[in-house]
């Protein structure tokens, strides 16, 4: 039975990572944008209601992630590769039981996307906003691909021929403040962007015909036609709020989730309808982790909430704020709240549901 005095709780990890932007134009949310950005589909703007999925794929297999903050997953033709925050390693693991085959050192703190191509591992780095090529046997850095396009929070990575495909969690134009998906040609140093169909897109993979892109707030993966930039369908994925990575092995999709720290083998040919009539509220924070000197957003699916609190690990209240009932998205500043590095808890009164998000 639902209670009218329950709280929804989410952990917000604050990590210190200072970054200074040069003088440049900004969108109306204060984020820099690239004047050379090519807008290939100005119609598909912002969050698409179709990401509120009514179908799910069968879970054929699942096991624990080798890292506690998984941020990406890739397939090399035989094994899976996993990256995570604060690891400085990538992990080659078995598709049968998730056991670690190899542990390879890489000098990156915040990789948020991984892909395998031509015997090379590529990682997209959240700190430098660049792509790095690594030898999967030794971890030696083979190349650095500099992306000079004012990325804010790059997530997900897939290499297709001469292009890298990845997401960015803030729009680079004043009229596009939602997520974008970019196609970057490293030979010509040109970039083409499409507006994403989700509000916080993460992992990317390709099945030979369609792109699959994860979205955190809707806990879904979206099937997209890359030729027409059309959303074909979206599917609920297991594990909770943070389905960060996705890979394709020729038959199955592999999803890695930062909420459950688990990996799931999903069958796209075995789909079931799910009940989407629940009135339960959800709360999501993004980006998460968030850098210092950055804004972060609180997304509320239930608009009856009227008060939020933020507390540190000692229970000290950092913020106690009344919000408008018709305001589902709240933007706060780590600077204004004077949040130092650590873990914080956000609670929001919610008269529909209660659950805890890691």
The CATH class of the largest domain turns out to be Mainly Beta
Shape: globular
Gyration radius from CA atoms, angstroms? 19 Å
Give me the CATH superfamily of the largest domain.
TolB, C-terminal domain
The end-to-end distance, rounded to whole angstroms, is 23 Å
The CATH architecture classification of the largest domain is 6 Propeller
Number of strands: 30
Summarize the main sheet.
6 strands, mixed
The overall pLDDT, averaged over residues, is 77
Output the CATH topology of the largest domain: Neuraminidase
Uncertain regions spanning at least 5 consecutive residues: 1-52, 171-177, 350-358
Q: Please give the domain count.
A: 2
- Strand percent estimate: over 45%
Q: Can you describe this structure?
A:
With 358 residues, the chain is mainly β. The protein has two domains: 6-16 and 277-357, Immunoglobulin-like (Sandwich), CATH 2.60.40; 38-273, 6 Propeller (Neuraminidase), CATH 2.120.10.30. The protein contains one helix and 30 strands. Strands 1, 24, 26, 27, 29 and 30 form a six-stranded mixed sheet that branches. The radius of gyration is 19 Å and the shape is globular. The two termini are 23 Å apart. Mean pLDDT is 77; it is low at 1-52, 171-177 and 350-358.
Write the layout of secondary structure elements.
Elements: E1 6-15, E2 38-39, E3 55-64, E4 70-75, E5 80-84, E6 89-93, E7 100-105, E8 111-117, E9 120-125, E10 131-134, E11 141-145, E12 154-160, E13 163-168, E14 180-185, E15 190-195, E16 201-206, E17 211-215, E18 220-225, E19 230-236, E20 243-248, E21 253-257, E22 262-273, E23 283-286, E24 290-291, E25 295-300, E26 307-311, E27 317-322, E28 329-333, H1 334-337, E29 342-350, E30 356-357
Parallel strand pairs: 1-24, 1-30, 2-15
Antiparallel strand pairs: 1-29, 3-22, 4-5, 5-6, 6-7, 8-9, 9-10, 10-11, 12-13, 13-14, 14-15, 16-17, 17-18, 18-19, 20-21, 21-22, 23-25, 25-28, 26-27, 26-29
């Amino acid at each position: 039975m639902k209670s009218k005095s329950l709280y929804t709780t989410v952990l917000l990890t604050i990590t210190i990572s200072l970054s200074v932007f040069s003088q440049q134009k900004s969108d109306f949310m204060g984020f820099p944008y690239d004047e050379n950005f090519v807008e290939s589909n100005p119609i598909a703007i912002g969050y698409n209601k179709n990401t509120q999925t009514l179908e799910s794929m069968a879970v054929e297999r699942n096991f624990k992630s080798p890292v506690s903050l998984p941020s990406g997953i890739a397939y090399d033709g035989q094994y899976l590769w996993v990256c995570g925050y604060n690891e400085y390693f990538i992990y080659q693991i078995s598709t049968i039981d998730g056991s670690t085959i190899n542990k390879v050192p890489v000098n990156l703190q915040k990789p948020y996307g991984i892909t395998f191509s031509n015997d090379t591992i590529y990682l997209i780095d959240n700190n430098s906003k660049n792509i790095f090529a690594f030898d999967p046997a030794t971890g030696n850095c083979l190349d650095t691909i500099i992306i000079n396009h004012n990325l804010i929070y790059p997530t997900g990575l897939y290499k297709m021929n001469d292009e890298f495909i990845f997401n960015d969690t803030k729009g680079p134009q004043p009229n596009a403040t939602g997520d974008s998906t970019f196609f970057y040609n490293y030979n010509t140093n040109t970039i083409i962007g499409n507006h994403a169909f989700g509000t916080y897109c993460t992992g990317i993979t390709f099945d030979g015909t369609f792109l699959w892109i994860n979205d955190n707030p809707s806990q879904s993966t979206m099937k997209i036609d890359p030729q027409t930039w059309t959303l074909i369908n979206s599917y609920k994925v297991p594990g909770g709020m943070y389905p960060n990575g996705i890979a394709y092995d020729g038959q199955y999709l592999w999803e890695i989730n930062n909420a459950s720290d688990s990996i799931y083998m999903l069958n796209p040919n075995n789909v079931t309808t799910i009940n989407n009539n629940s009135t339960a509220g959800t709360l999501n924070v993004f980006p998460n982790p968030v850098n210092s000197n950055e804004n972060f957003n609180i997304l509320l699916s239930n608009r009856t909430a009227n008060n939020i609190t933020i507390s540190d690990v000692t229970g000290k209240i950092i913020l106690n704020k009344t919000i408008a009932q018709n305001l589902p998205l709240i933007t706060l500043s780590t600077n204004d709240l004077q949040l130092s590095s650590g873990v914080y808890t956000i609670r929001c009164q919610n008269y529909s549901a209660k659950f805890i998000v890691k």
